[in-house]
Amino acid sequence: MSQSIAANPDRLLPADPGTRSIARSLLERVQDLPIISPHGHVDAAVIEHNTPFPDPAALLVSPDHYVTRLIHASGVPMGKLLSGGANPSESREIWRTFVQSWPLFEGTASGYWLRTQFESVFKLGADLGEMSADASYDVIAAKLVEPDFRPRQLFKDFNIEVLATTDDPLDSLASHKAIAEDPSFNGRVLPTFRPDAYLNIAHPAWSANVERLIETASDGATGYTGYITALENRRRYFVDHGAVSADHGVLTPATLKLDRSEAERIFELARAGKATAEDRNTFEAHMMYQMARMSVEDGLVMTIHPGSFRNHHQPTFEAYGADTGHDIPFATNYTEAIRPLLQDFGTAKDFHLVLFTLDETVFSRELAPLAGFYPSVYLGAPWWFLDAPDAILRFRSAVTETTGFSRSSGFIDDTRAFCSIPARHDASRRIEASFLARLVAEHRVSEDRAHEIIVDVVDSSPRRVFKL
């Protein structure tokens, strides 16, 4: 068996030998810096309880919609991919389907993350395509039962310093509290306030969520007043438990400041089930404005992730639920949509607003100019379908001439796949080194300055932007 290409020390670095040499030096400068992960979806309870990882299919295939979507596109029914962990024979069969589909992932970001994990985390020692499905399954399964492969040890081995989770506003945050109070654990696991299901009237559980929210946290107030009070109180609860940011997954980045009476009117219509589609859009835009106001007051960094048409294939959603590979990006407009918010809060002291997009066309046209003027605005890292090597390079090329390096958030892995975190951050560091190496080779940035910049991009930026 030949060595996996994931073991090549020059992976993702420039092909030109001279530029590659510069990139190697820059990468060496940051390769061993700790991982700062200020936005992701790992379950804090897994860290608290040091829960063993499940079998290979349940860990690496079934929950990863990057993986299942492409295999499904080749004609494999979703039901044959999403039931890992039910029993060993079923999990092994899912793994066999995955290995048979492995050639589909050549050239994809998913293939790169997986190949890197197989090499650096699971020590397969060869490319997956050169091993039998059963042999690779057995190697990984054997790793998963080792005491040193529990989440807490991997947290340390991966050199993670900060890991942020994504949490419901009414979550007790008991796991975060237990981790913070555990003297044997040296990292930081921080909650993130994610109120989408409480702001979006179109969410099927919105009415029930709002009732629970008001009942739990409104200090006895009712109606719209109780709703706003409860959101403010729960945000403070998150701050008290270590949160540094509030994250918002919205259809569009629209913002709007409504008169209180109009907001109350729509709120009551929604509770009665009589809100129109226009009402829903208007209210969510108003609540995004309110979230910004609250961030100015309580200090939580506000991050916005718009531009995804969720659950595009209704039959798949009905059969298997959300996050099963058919959330599809669409064009996003920021300049007009975010303006009402920025008029009032764009220059507010200590307000940090991190803007993400799935629409590459807005990087240079809208986001870079916004971040190049408003002190509050920072560029979110390339996200989701854009968190791939070439897309990260395109992002750097699109925004740097307008904003430089200081206005970006640092890398965001945004992952549920705990074992992919180091692979993703390593890839980002290699791409940053490659981009900077080109500027050095073209005599646009000095090599000494490039060494300072890459440390700032990898380490200082996420600390600064997320107030760590």
Report a brief summary of the structure.
InterPro entries: Metal_Hydrolase (IPR032466), Uronate_isomerase (IPR003766). The chain has 468 residues and is of the alpha/beta class.
Structure description:
50% of the residues lie in helices and 7% in strands. The chain is built from 20 helices and nine strands. The chain has a four-stranded parallel β-sheet, covered by helices on one side. The chain has a three-stranded parallel β-sheet with strand order 1-2-3. Strands 6-7 form a two-stranded antiparallel ribbon. α1 packs across α20, α6 (109-120) packs across α19 and α18 packs across α19. The longest helix has 22 residues, at 277-298. The relative contact order is 0.14. The model has no long low-confidence stretch (mean pLDDT 95).
